[in-house]
Amino acid sequence: MADMSNTNQDFLNNLLQKLHSNLETRFRKFVDEQIRAIEDTKVKIKKRKGVIGFMRIFPQFLTVVENMLAGVDPRLNVRRTVDREYDRILKTMFDSLKVIARETPSAVAAAGVTPGGASAITSSSGGTSSADPEEKLALNFHILLIENMNHYLEEVEPRNLEVLLDWREAAQRELAEHLGLYLNAVMRRPLGRLLEHLENIEAQLATGKSPAAVAAQPSNSKAVFHKILSGYDAKEVRKGIETLRKRIEKHFGDENDPSGAAKLIGMVLEECGKFYAGVETRILRITNEVYGGEVVFEWPRAEVRSAFGGGLR
């Protein structure tokens, strides 16, 4: 078209301009239809688990479009047009995914639980009952985001396109955020009392309170800290990790994609291993800073390493 516009072929030039405009309009309408279909998914879906349909379809759609653009000069308008529509589609996908994850199943809604309660489980310092609908709602929110962001990162090749690189970064941020919140929630069962104690001491130290002043508190005495640590012997830690492993397999298992689920479960378990290693580091720090290194430290490091494949450092 650029070459034709520099000639005296007005008829052909006008014809090409009209065809180009018509194709752009049709493509935009096509994308509008896809966006409406994605938005409709928000109200149709019943099972808030697994990879949502539009997240599975987009990588295929991307491949088809990019195959058609193979060899096209990236400086042409068609590249900018397609990238702009990618951005529209992906924004709708990510926004819709969060709406789906937040929507309250009717049974939970009947119990009076609202999506706003989801943050309670992620910030709570104590354990909660597995029958708590608020806990289930919060975990489902994180699980769905983890599953779908992980799928996006695994399946969508950025192809060195700025728009896809930007959305890849967004997916990585979402995955990291919700994986962290998920771990903070599920770790309350095997490590709840210990985490509560560590967080209490760490919070006081963060405000500038002296280690001696913290240790002088009856609830934070050396004897209390030792008693809490003694409750996490090798047997108890192994039991907690095994229960945690089964829970994660239940949360992320997918009979429709067993290999993909196994890979995701492996990734989550690896992060669990890092969490446990982080707990050991926190115990050591508090033992040294607050209690002068005098507390008998019996954290079962060998059992933790064994449970998570020995890959921890």
Description:
- The protein has two domains: 46-186; 189-307, no CATH class.
- The protein has helices spanning 2-5, 10-44, 53-68, 77-102, 106-110, 118-123, 133-155, 162-186, 188-206, 211-215, 222-230, 234-252, 258-291, 301-307.
- Helix 2 (10-44) runs parallel beside helix 4 (77-102).
- It has 14 helices and no strands.
- It has 313 residues and is an all-alpha fold.
- Residues 104-131 have low confidence and may be disordered.
- It is elongated, with a radius of gyration of 26 Å.
Strand content: under 5%
**Radius of gyration from the alpha-carbon trace, in angstroms:** 26 Å
- The number of helical segments is 14
What's the mean pLDDT score? Answer: 84
Structural class: mainly alpha
Shape: elongated
Q: What is the end-to-end distance?
A: 61 Å
Per DSSP E runs of 2 or more residues, the count of β-strands stands at 0
Q: How helix-rich are the residues, as a percent range?
A: over 70%
Please trace the helix and strand order, writing H or E for each element: HHHHHHHHHHHHHH
Query: Which segments are poorly predicted (pLDDT under 50) over 5 or more consecutive residues?
Result: 104-131
Please outline the major beta sheet. Answer: none
Question: How many domains in all?
Answer: 2
Give a quick rundown of the structure.
This protein has 313 residues and is an all-alpha fold.
